[in-house]
Specification:
single chain; 0% strand
Length: 120
């Protein structure tokens, strides 16, 4: 699996796809823990904790298995994570971004673009 991921991330599009997968796994795992802690009880709480743990473990494997310059790709990852987190917040919790979140998100996207395309 590691060789396959190395091959995928050797191309810019493949690296973005893997980073998007990692962002989805991390945001879903975080949301599952929030569901377990604050919005469920009994068996559904246990299932939410287990789903969160599995998702975050998969995230760790996806991010760390390939051999890549993660520091350079961090800008793109932060942007993807921010965007995915907003989608998850809307879909799972019915939360819309406030003006400060939109403004801060604009700065996150701008920073990610600078790191990804202007960094050495």
């Amino acid at each position: 699996m590691r060789n396959l991921l190395d091959q995928i991330v050797s191309h810019r599009g493949g690296a973005l796809l893997i980073l998007l997968l990692a962002a989805v796994l991390e945001a879903y795992g975080d949301a599952s823990f929030q569901m377990a802690l604050y919005r469920s009880s009994g068996f559904s709480r246990t299932v939410a904790f287990l789903c969160g743990a599995a998702s975050l473990a998969a995230y760790g494997l996806v991010v760390n298995a390939p051999r890549w310059n993660f520091g350079k790709l961090l800008g793109a990852y932060v942007v993807l994570f921010f965007l995915v987190a907003q989608v998850v917040a809307r879909m799972r919790f019915g939360q819309s971004p406030t003006l400060p979140v939109v403004l801060g998100g604009t700065l996150i996207v701008a920073g990610g673009l600078i790191i990804s395309f202007c960094g050495a």
